[in-house]
Design goal:
Layout (H helix, E strand, L loop, with lengths): L7 H7 L13 H25 L8 H27 L16 H10 L4 H13 L16 H24 L1 H4 L21 H21 L6 H17 L9 H6 L5 H10 L10 H6 L18
Helix pairs in contact: 3-9, 6-8, 6-9
Length: 304
């Protein structure tokens, strides 16, 4: 079937907030001061709770195993992308009309130092683990990994983020938390965790903890290895779906409803489709899925 032209003008006209220009100022020192103050305040409050109730602190090793898995995964993803970008530039299956280029050193430093990325995710993982905010089963380091449990975390998480993500796009006041991320009209790998503190809170941290609570509520016992494999896969595949390239496995993934870079590029291009990240099932069920094969117009890359 021939691709159907879906005009970006229609999408752009729906909301004045969609502006393909990066804000020059995103909070500055005040943002850092507020973020650090909130995190330190939480640590103080929770520490006092642990002391007053004489709750023993858990072994930090389980926390480190999870963070270490994410870092190892980053090495694999960055190496994979570096090879494609540096040695196959211009020959790969680029999704966009023009393949974006970037400075690796600048993007790596930015990825490691953005307030809305590791400076929120690592404290979230540390606080929820060390202050015993997770169900007891998470602290079991001996239980083997369960593929079913990893899948259930993804399924529940993606449903929650689908709902929040759709609300962000359809409610103007809520969309303001998300619009910094849509500055990247033709995203590349390192744009995955670029946005705002509010966006990371709404679209990553809250769904992560709600996933923990929902699965615990329905009686699913998630163990440390289940949680670590979910986190490692999540953190790294989230970058790959923002990639400017399609991947060799994308045809298979799309056939079974797993989200791909092509699917997410449609979202960044057309704005009102493909709200899911890891699965397209929720979009397909609720009528917001649009295949990349039906989009013949992508926004032309513009360096931000």
């Amino acid at each position: 079937a021939q691709p159907v032209e879906v005009s970006t003008k229609d999408s752009l006209s729906r909301k004045k907030a969609y502006k393909p220009t990066r804000k020059s100022k995103k909070g500055g020192m005040m943002q850092w001061a507020n973020l650090i103050s909130i995190e330190l305040g939480l640590v103080y409050f929770l520490y006092q709770r642990m002391e007053s109730q004489q709750i023993p602190f858990p072994d930090w090793w389980g926390l480190w195993l999870g963070i270490r898995g994410v870092l190892y995964g980053h090495v694999v993803v960055f190496t994979y992308h570096f090879i494609r970008k540096s040695y196959l530039y211009g020959t790969e299956s680029n999704i966009q009309q023009k393949e974006p280029n970037f400075s690796w050193s600048r993007e790596l430093i930015g990825h490691a130092t953005r307030a809305e990325a590791f400076f929120m995710l690592v404290p979230y993982l540390s606080i929820t683990w060390l202050f015993k905010l997770m169900p007891e089963s998470y602290y079991d380091l001996e239980a083997p990994v369960s593929v079913l449990n990893v899948f259930l975390q993804f399924a529940v998480y993606d449903l929650i983020t689908y709902i929040i993500h759709r609300v962000q796009h359809q409610v103007e006041t809520v969309y303001r938390t998300h619009k910094d991320h849509h500055v990247f009209i033709n995203p590349h790998l390192f744009n995955a965790y670029s946005g705002s503190v509010q966006d990371t809170t709404l679209l990553i941290l809250i769904p992560l903890y709600l996933t923990v609570l929902v699965l615990h509520l329905v009686g699913v016992n998630i163990h440390q290895k289940d949680y670590a494999w979910f986190g490692c896969t999540y953190a790294n595949y989230f970058m790959l779906i923002h990639s400017e390239y399609s991947n060799p496995w994308d045809d298979i993934f799309e056939a079974i409803g797993i989200g791909t870079a092509r699917d997410h590029n449609v979202h960044h291009s057309q704005l009102k489709f493909n709200y899911g990240h890891f699965f397209m099932w929720w979009d397909q069920i609720f009528g917001t899925y649009l295949s990349h094969t039906k989009v013949s117009i992508y926004r032309t890359y513009k360096a931000a």
